[in-house]
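Case 719 in the screening queue. Each case pairs one protein sequence with one candidate compound; here the compound is 2-(butylsulfanyl)adenosine. For every case the pipeline is the same: read the inputs, emit a complex structure as tokens, and attach any notable structural observations.

Predict complex for case 719.
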Amino acid sequence: MSTYAEIAVEDLTETEAAAELARLATEIAHHDQLYYAKDAPEISDAQYDELRKRNNAIEAHFSELIRDDSPSRRVGVAPSSGFAKVTHAVPMLSLENAFDEQDVRDFFAGIRNFFRRPEDVARVAADAIEVMAEPKIDGLSAALRYEHGRLVLGATRGDGVTGEDVTANIRTLRNVPKTLAGKGWPDVIEVRGEIYMEREGFFAVNAEREAAGEPVFANPRNVAAGSLRQLDPAITARRPLKFFAYHWGETSAPFARTHGEALEHLSGWGFTVNPRSRLCHGVDEVLAAYREIGADRADLPYDIDGVVYKVNDIGLQRRLGFVSRAPRWALAHKFPAQQAQTVIEKIDIQVGRMGTLTPVAFLAPITVGGVVVQRATLHNEDEIARKDIREGDTVVIQRAGDVIPQVVSVVLDKRPSNSVPYQFPEECPVCHSLAVREPGMAARRCTGGLICAAQAVERLKHFVSRDCFDIEGMGAKHIAAFWEDGLIQRPGDIFRLKAEQIAGREGWGELSAANLIRAIVQRRRISLDRFVNALGIPQVGQATARLLARHYRSLDHWRREMEQPDNEAAHASLLDVHGIGDDMAADIVGFFAEAHNRELLDDLVHEVEVLDYESPNRLGPGGAAASPLAGKTIVFTGGLETMSRSEAKARAEALGANVASSVSAKTNFVVVGADAGSKATKAASLGVTMLDEGQWLRLAGLGEDAAESTASGAPPGAG
Ligand code: IVH
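Case 719 output:
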């Protein structure tokens, strides 16, 4: 063990923190291996938790040091060598989370806005849309594949794309059918659901382990995960695991029209489905279901952490499709965060890369829901004033999922008598320029711009961060030092650094300097989306960068569109990107309008090669590799009667098309709606294939003759 293990997280230097993270990654991996693969842990769960907590605490302080192999980045445990890998035919997705009622209402509003066909509008109205609400089981998901009614494969979720073959272990679960009962099941069906352990079983397992002098498990979820991944199925068989079916992956034929109907079939075929699942009409009924399930939470024999909502109609589900890793038709409404009380020791102001002053509360460390919390965001000065939060106050804090802890309220009874209201600074704590609030804005911003060290360093930190250029070894402190000494002023300078300039500086040797240069060289080729994200344009994060990359395909094309002499034209081009609104477009156009930003780009493209966007070939369900739209460029012009722009674009993109805003010789299809203008004329002059609405619907698999195969999904032999 290295000597740094004894140093408190706040006292670690960056070098020490990096060494600690390396040690913890190795140690935790070692104990995972002992625990999960060999079932022979050497340390108690509490000691193990301490390791993970320390890892998380260091990462919270030194986010730029988070390793690729960090224990916190692993979903569950890395596949152990004992199991064969399984690639899921249909990826196992996760769910979008909702933390409050407004998130749920937004979800429903999003669905209403998606559908414009007259026959859909009434069905998706706020008080009418059919949604199933079901408990969100706190276990681990698994996929069970049946061929001709026989269980042939059981797999863990893994990272969603690749899991582990745990068939022998799954076979030991008493409530998993080995052969399907009833009739009407498709020849191939992959039933998905949650493997979990009831609290009673969990206590029994722990009692046994305690009696045998073995370390006990922390919660039912851990013991379920550990049990499923036993190399010896006999051990799994002794652990009382259960399975709830709630979804499915690949099927040789559709088997239900609605989620509720699917659950009925699954139940008829021998699966346990959750008896608390229920059909709701509209958002208010859904919220009532949430409250009821929440009220009974403690009485259920197993742990749940929220309620999952699923649009009931499978035809609508298919049309809604997916956004990145989660379906648009489902939502996980989490139960409220766990709360705790602690003292605010100090309020500090951090300056972001756009100059925003963010107040942060430094707390007396406290454990909330199993994680040590030392900092909480205070959002902005209004928030502090509204809640009258002061240094020295005892406050209620809460964590919701992975979100940064928040201060809920002040415990006034515990306020010290000498307490004074917090004065928000009116100047930047770093460069001392005036910090101003523009009318209508919540944030106070430093006006220092390019002279503010904090902003410059934050922008560079963002540039090299994991989702951008991902330059390993270039931590915040180094960037600050390089910036102060004038070694790096703008991003392009990073690529002109020489090992000789770095070696010999404080904290650097020949080897570490050479390593840094190597890490930089490795990043000279970069994907378009990372490049766009790295620019740090206000409001443009990873998701928007991806939208832009997918839409414009190459940096040259994007720049041409953005740097047109007419800002209006650039703005209009952006509005054609599905997911980009007026505000964001204005920020992007504003970025390009600044001469120094264009110079920065010119400088940067001398140093790096930005790769053109390549369409991912992994399509979610509903997408088809054989789609006539795959890889094609399509333009919509004029209004469509049967669907909104959003739905048309989502559909085209789900089928692998690139949706463009303007017609060119590269355009494959132009869909001409009502009142189409110049784009249609241009398409005609270029000889681009033009489609009317009916032709588009058929091409998209939504036309009259396509309805049977795509929209309804009549159950084979059902009824
Ligand atoms: S549906 C595409 N339903 O929650 C939809 N998931 O946070 C797939 N989970 O990975 C998931 N209860 O492990 C669904 N009733 C339920 C669930 C549920 C628990 C888990 C599941 C998933 C995770 C997402």
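Case 719 observations:
- The chain is about 35% helix and 20% strand.
- Residues 75-81, 617-624, 705-719 have pLDDT under 50 and may be disordered.
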